[in-house]
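Notes from the 1:1 (GR / supervisor)

We went over the backlog. Supervisor wanted to see one worked example end to end before approving the batch request, so GR pasted a single chain during the call. The sequence is below; no edits were made to it. Supervisor asked that the structure be written out right there so they could see what the output format looks like.
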Amino acid sequence: MFYYLFHYLDQLNFPGAGVFQYISFRAALALLSSLIITMVFGKRIINFIRKKQIGETIRELGLQGQNEKAGTPTMGGLIILAAIIIPTLLFAKIHNVYIVLMLISTVWLGAIGFIDDYIKVFKKNKEGLKGKFKIVGQIGIGLIVGAVFYFHPDVVIKERLTPNQQNAYSFDDAISGGKNPTTPKYSKTPVKTIKTTIPFVKNNEFDYTRLLSFMGDKAIEYGWLIFIPIVILIITAVSNGANITDGIDGLAAGTSAIIGTTLGILAYVSGNTVFADYLNIMYIPNTGELVVFMAAFVGACVGFLWYNAFPAQVFMGDTGSLAIGGIIAVYAIAIRKELLIPILCGIFLVENISVILQVYYFKYQKKKRGLEYAKANRLFKMAPLHHHYQKSGFHESKIVMRFFIIGIMLAALTIVTLKLR
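Structure output shown during the call:
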């Protein structure tokens, strides 16, 4: 909104209006606005939720400090959603296809989480929305995201020129009498492709159509058959991973802020020809605008910690956790860094795996040695993994801080993979 206003004022030579053309400036404003919304207006939202008696129902898990959390306001994810959506609408280019898709994903997954929380809180059903309906909702947004990324004409990349092609550009420019100060490193013509970045490989681009090489010439035409299911899988996995991680005060919000900061950096360098050339990575036009969205996302997560850090005054609920997980997944796919998710979102991955291993190990022991043995010899004291450490006697603040440190290490490793090949 403000971008278009100040763009118009800039055309009228209004002093200072041109500063809104800079992504870094608008990202800073989005970050500050997001923090203000969460920290200032967040308190009012929490008080409203408390008056409506929207409190968390705590299951008896035998964890230290568990009973004290009963009645803590939940559905605080509404604060996060507001702090993401409002600054994005104010400071981003709304006509950008990536921004539109991020907003749709945020609202869609936030709505699924809201329905789940509503059933738990108002219908007094601890199970919430049935898992199959959550999956259907996640598949739905996955279909939309995958189809848009595959078919929309604005979702393109620019291929890196070979040395011979760069020389040809310079030669043509010299013949035409042009004064090209620098030799172009990327093609002027954008290309529709489903290439992505693959870590630890020298020529670090992977085309999903290779998985359909058995189809011969039709592999490119039917690339959506493999691309869209992969998108659905990634969104579902990361969304559920964030949901599982949201188990102790501040863990999901803080971890997501670290992940979001890293993705924002990756989006900035991928959407800038200078940095993309220096790092020898894929140049993706128009993705720089995603930095504004991610600034709002990081501000929302950090600002939410003001009330969600131990001892939590509010829980985000599925309204927040499903949304932030989905946002991370869609964002990573947009900047073609989804294959870095196992590294960057390593905490989500381990939390997911711990639950899967716990379930299957219990079933295996039950079948082989009986129910009593299986109960007494679980793989983890409790799953997901953060509850295992709680059961082991660690205070949740220490668990959260150590997970943050690991998250920062994984974020650094993710960025290093751009050059570590």
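Supervisor's comment: The chain has a mean pLDDT of 89.
Batch request approved.
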